[in-house]
Amino acid sequence: MSDHDSEEKVILSLKKTRKAFLIEYGCGILLLLFLGYFTLKGVHFKPLFAKTIIGLALFSMLSAEYARVLVRYKVTDAKITSVKGIIKQSKKNIYFAPLSYLPNINFKQNRLQRLLRYGTISISGIPEEGVISGSFEIKDINNPHKVLEIIEKWVDYYRNRMHGAKRPDEK
């Protein structure tokens, strides 16, 4: 292994996009607008009701932010890493060298995701001795086409490096 291979270079750091939580943010903002509109119109709410509305709005928006912070992805020049959790964490590494033998690296988008330009990249294993190896998803990220292209370049590099392929980060 050369010195160039021993240090991993971070290519991308990813987390879920806020676009994936439009409903949560929309509900929070709508509740605050509701409360503000009627307050400006002179409607007086009981303090407990107003605090409940504010609490629900904050809970809606903070739960979306918590879900974004909970899962993080990192693409390096050797692997893809998924870290889930804040205090109690689980970490999963998918190395590019074994991925060079996997045929299924795809992305998924529904109509709304396509319009908002975010989606999910899925990597699924090939069957080995009657058992299908695991799958891996990078969920709700911006520009999945570009991320998929970067991953495919690194997979191709590891697939062809014995034949003298250039690293994707080299000119």
The proportion of residues forming helix, as a percent range, comes to 40-55%
Structural class comes to alpha+beta
Q: Distance N terminus to C terminus?
A: 21 Å
Rounded to the nearest angstrom, the radius of gyration is 22 Å
Q: Please give the largest β-sheet.
A: 4 strands, antiparallel
Strand arrangement, major sheet: 1-2-3-4
Taken together, the total number of domains comes to 2
Strand content: 25-35%
CATH topology of the largest domain: PH-domain like
What does this molecule look like?
- The protein has 6 helices and 9 strands.
- It is an alpha+beta fold.
- A hairpin with a 2-residue loop joins strand 2 and strand 3 (79-84).
Summarize the structure.
The protein has helices at residues 3-6, 22-40, 47-70, 96-99, 111-116, 144-160; strands spanning 10-15, 71-76, 79-84, 90-95, 104-108, 118-124, 127-128, 131-132, 135-142. The chain is α+β, with helices and mostly antiparallel strands and 171 residues long.
Feature tags:
disordered N terminus; elongated; PH-domain like; 2 domains; four-stranded antiparallel sheet; three-stranded antiparallel sheet; 171 residues; alpha+beta
